[in-house]
Amino acid sequence: MWLEPYEDTICQGAIVDYPDWEFGDVKIPLAVVLSNECDLTNDKCGYLILMGLLEADFVLKSSKEYQAILPENFTGNFANLTKKQKEAITKYFEGFIHNKDIRRYFFLGGDALGLPNLVVDFQLLKSIPYANIPELKPIGKVKSPFKEQMIVHFASYTSRIPTERVSEDIKLGLLNSLISSDAEI
């Protein structure tokens, strides 16, 4: 669904094997090309920008949000979870599968290429000289419109403007006025 086989040239959304990339103790074997398509096509690219791809299973299950859903002594047996916990886990994963929110990670199922489910990590960026493209082993590419959605999510994620949260009193007042002039929360 998200991925398709590689064609003939490195393009925006190409998934590549780039063995010389490490982040601390973590080896980042796969990356997706972020560089602008027109720069690549018109040979205006001095550097190729890559974003790291990580296994979704590990990343998503390691998050604080996922861990908060699980009971303290969870042993991995989902049959022992409550209905509410199962629903919360389903909702959590569905949010990623559909890439509903602007987050640090963008989900890509590995489906068509025999890859595991992956997430693009918007904080794992690397620039390599354009001349180093022959070092990249193309594996596949992100299909449209997922490629464009990924780029929009990346731009939105990196250009967020920090704002202060409204106080609880103000929030409750706004909620009361928006819900109904007669109702009170």
Broad shape: globular
Main sheet? 7 strands, antiparallel
Strand order of the largest sheet: 1-9-2-5-6-8-7
- The number of distinct β-strands equals 9
Task: Please report the distance between the alpha carbons of the first and last residues.
Answer: 43 Å
Radius of gyration: 20 Å
**Number of H- or I-type helical stretches:** 6
Can you tell me about this structure?
The chain has 185 residues and is α+β, with helices and mostly antiparallel strands. The protein has helices at 37-41, 56-62, 64-69, 83-97, 146-158, 168-179, and strands spanning 3-5, 14-17, 22-23, 26-27, 30-33, 47-55, 105-108, 118-129, 137-142. The protein has a seven-stranded antiparallel beta sheet. Strands 3-4 form a two-stranded antiparallel sheet. The longest helix is centred in the middle third of the chain and has 15 residues, at 83-97. The protein is globular, with a radius of gyration of 20 Å. The mean pLDDT is 88.
List strands and helices in order, with pairings.
Layout: E1 3-5, E2 14-17, E3 22-23, E4 26-27, E5 30-33, H1 37-41, E6 47-55, H2 56-62, H3 64-69, H4 83-97, E7 105-108, E8 118-129, E9 137-142, H5 146-158, H6 168-179
Spell out the key features of this protein.
185 residues, alpha+beta, 7-stranded antiparallel β-sheet, 31% helix
What does this entry show, briefly?
The protein is of the alpha+beta class. The chain is 31% helix and 25% strand.
